[in-house]
């Protein structure tokens, strides 16, 4: 078909997409083999199966238009695939490799999303509803694949990659939120009510905020609507677990709770180090305004007893990753928090600068929600 018509452009796009899908089918097995995260492996395997179906859908449409595509036909995706392979090869060591695979895969997904979006629109313009429907199905699946990659990146892969960088600099990784329901010891924390010493019902256990070695710093409580923000955090040392009663007794009165900043796990993950410190300072300010104001320059967790690790918190069973735990399974934890590896220099993540938090509000949009950083 000669150029100059929308149909010619449509056929050109279909051929490019068909060649692209072929390249993706050829490239994905290596990415699957190289991925470390089980979630990432499964997502890529699933997408490889879907990609074969995408190619079949294109074949149906191409047959209808009597257009043939050679097995090794070029596509605009050629450069993206090569660049992605080079990126993964250049960052093949350590935890950053999965982040590189996701980066490469998302470049490819966006190319496909652009191509399928155009092809779908062209089909509609040409009043070929059947082809438009098939292309829309594939477009939706490419979008789903892209979103899934973002989820995987944000649920651990990026953090692990960041940890690698932090370790290179001799610093511990920043604090992370872990849902109690995802822990090996989930049953211990399932439907555990939270009450203060006056007997006020303050919600249920939701999760914990841990450091890279799974040391707890905060208990995360789901207030169940009692508190406008839904969830809030409490320094871990202010909570006492009574296992037989499925009750967590906390040292927190209702008036203090009203001053508490909200806690949103997704937003917390997206905070910069400075923003996270300022958020933590607001928690400190709510607990003890005097102590917060008296902190002339900075405070450390060690300065306040309420950040001490409680006896009931068992890292041997709670550690989501044995490789990251510093405690052998089944062995009791040292009740007090271990001293930093380099006591002469306080790790940046464990210091909250007073000057950065002069009582100002956190940017609400950062707390309430965040943008996808990869889509
Ligand atoms: Fe595809």
Structural notes for this entry:
The protein is α+β, with helices and mostly antiparallel strands and 375 residues long. The protein folds into 2 domains: 6-161, Ferritin (Up-down Bundle); 171-353, PRC-barrel domain (SH3 type barrels). The chain contains 12 helices and 9 strands. The chain has helices at 6-34, 38-64, 77-90, 96-125, 129-168, 186-189, 254-258, 265-270, 273-287, 289-294, 315-318, 364-368, and strands spanning 176-179, 193-196, 201-210, 216-222, 231-235, 239-242, 247-250, 298-300, 351-353. The strands form 2 sheets. Strands 1, 2, 3, 4, 5, 6 and 7 form a 7-stranded mixed β-sheet that branches. A hairpin with a 4-residue loop joins strand 2 and strand 3 (201-210). Residues 164-172 and 316-375 have low confidence and may be disordered. The site of fe (ii) ion (FE2) has 6 residues, from helix 1 and helix 2. Fe (ii) ion binds next to helix 1 and helix 2.
Question: What layout of secondary structure does this protein have?
Answer:
Elements: H1 6-34, H2 38-64, H3 77-90, H4 96-125, H5 129-168, E1 176-179, H6 186-189, E2 193-196, E3 201-210, E4 216-222, E5 231-235, E6 239-242, E7 247-250, H7 254-258, H8 265-270, H9 273-287, H10 289-294, E8 298-300, H11 315-318, E9 351-353, H12 364-368
Parallel strand pairs: 2-7
Antiparallel strand pairs: 1-3, 2-3, 3-4, 4-5, 6-7, 8-9
Helix pairs in contact: 1-2, 1-3, 1-4, 2-5, 3-4, 4-5
In short:
The chain is an alpha+beta fold and 375 residues long. It has helices at residues 6-34, 38-64, 77-90, 96-125, 129-168, 186-189, 254-258, 265-270, 273-287, 289-294, 315-318, 364-368, and strands at residues 176-179, 193-196, 201-210, 216-222, 231-235, 239-242, 247-250, 298-300, 351-353. α1 packs antiparallel against α4 (96-125) and α2 runs antiparallel to α5.
């Amino acid at each position: 078909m000669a150029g100059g018509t929308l149909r010619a452009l449509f056929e050109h796009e279909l051929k490019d997409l068909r060649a692209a899908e072929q390249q993706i089918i050829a490239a994905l097995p290596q990415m699957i083999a190289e991925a470390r995260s089980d979630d990432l492996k499964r997502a890529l395997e699933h997408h490889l199966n879907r990609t074969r179906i995408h190619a079949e859908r294109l074949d149906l449409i191409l047959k209808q238009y009597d257009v043939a595509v050679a097995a090794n036909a070029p596509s605009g995706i050629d450069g993206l695939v090569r660049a992605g392979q080079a990126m993964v090869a250049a960052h093949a060591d350590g935890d950053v490799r999965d982040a590189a695979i996701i980066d490469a895969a998302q470049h490819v997904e966006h190319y496909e999303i652009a191509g399928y979006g155009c092809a779908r629109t062209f089909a509609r313009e040409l009043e070929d509803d059947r082809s438009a429907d098939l292309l829309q199905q594939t477009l939706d699946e490419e979008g789903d694949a892209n979103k899934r990659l973002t989820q995987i990146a944000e649920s651990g892969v990026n953090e692990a990659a960041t940890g690698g960088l932090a370790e290179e600099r001799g610093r511990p990784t920043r604090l992370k939120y872990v849902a109690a329901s995802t822990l090996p010891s989930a049953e211990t924390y399932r439907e555990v009510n939270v009450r203060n010493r006056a007997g006020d019902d303050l919600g249920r256990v939701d999760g914990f905020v841990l450091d890279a070695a799974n040391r707890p710093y905060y208990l995360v409580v789901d207030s169940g609507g009692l508190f406008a923000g839904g969830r809030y955090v409490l320094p871990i040392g202010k909570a006492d677990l009574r296992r037989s009663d499925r009750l967590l007794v906390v040292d927190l009165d209702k008036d203090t709770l009203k001053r508490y900043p909200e806690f949103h796990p997704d937003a917390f993950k997206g905070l910069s180090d400075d923003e996270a410190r300022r958020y933590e300072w607001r928690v400190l300010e709510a607990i003890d305004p005097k102590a917060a104001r008296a902190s002339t320059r900075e405070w450390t967790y060690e300065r306040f007893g309420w950040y001490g690790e409680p006896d009931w918190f068992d890292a041997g069973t709670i550690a989501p990753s044995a490789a990251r735990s510093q405690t052998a399974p089944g062995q009791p934890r040292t009740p007090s928090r271990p001293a930093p590896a380099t006591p002469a220099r306080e790790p940046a993540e464990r210091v909250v600068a007073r000057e950065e938090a002069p009582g100002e509000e956190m940017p609400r949009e950062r707390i309430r929600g965040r943008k996808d950083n990869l889509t």
